Amino acid sequence: MPTPRAQLTLAEVEAIAREAHAEQRDKAGRPYTEHLAAVAEGVRIRGGSDGQIAAAWLHDAVEDDALSGEWLAAAALPQEVKDMVLAVTKRDGEDLRSYTRRILDTPGALLIKESDLAHNADPARLAVLEPATRTRLAEKYAQVRALLGLTPGEPPAEQPVQANTAED
Fold first, then answer.
1. Dihedral sign, Cα of residue 138, residue 143, residue 144, residue 148
2. What's the pTM value of the predicted model, to 2 decimals?
3. What is the distance between the alpha carbons of residues 139 and 133, in angstroms, rounded to a whole number?
4. The pLDDT value given to residue 161
5. How far is it, in rounded angstroms, from Cα 94 to Cα 111?
6. What DSSP state is assigned to residue 151?
7. What is the mean pLDDT of residues 62-66?
């Protein structure tokens, strides 16, 4: 019988995410890992569980092809962490209503997406973009927030998921 693998710690998940996204830059040319760190911190300060923080570190990994879906399926992570990552992973050709419905239907995922949107829509972050891009993205983020039932300055209605990924 194979020996069960130990769960990845938050520090290990962070290191994996940082390495996977090491060469990526955001739309403003900043290291993409800054966004991951901001989303993970946003989840933490909003009272998220260790599992939600782990999912925040990995929230764009599959969508951006930084890590494969196969990697995620085999990763030593609780299933609820994998579910949250997949819930916030936008699929090619997927409409916003289906995407946001999946987030709302997945325990713990709303807090991750709320933190992601908060960082994406940060005025200081948007200010460095070209006006047309800034306007397009601000409208997109507002539409997603509305579909998720989030209003500016209001916390999401769900409670954090209590996932045990291990201590960091």
1. positive
2. 0.86
3. 10
4. 41
5. 21
6. -
7. 94
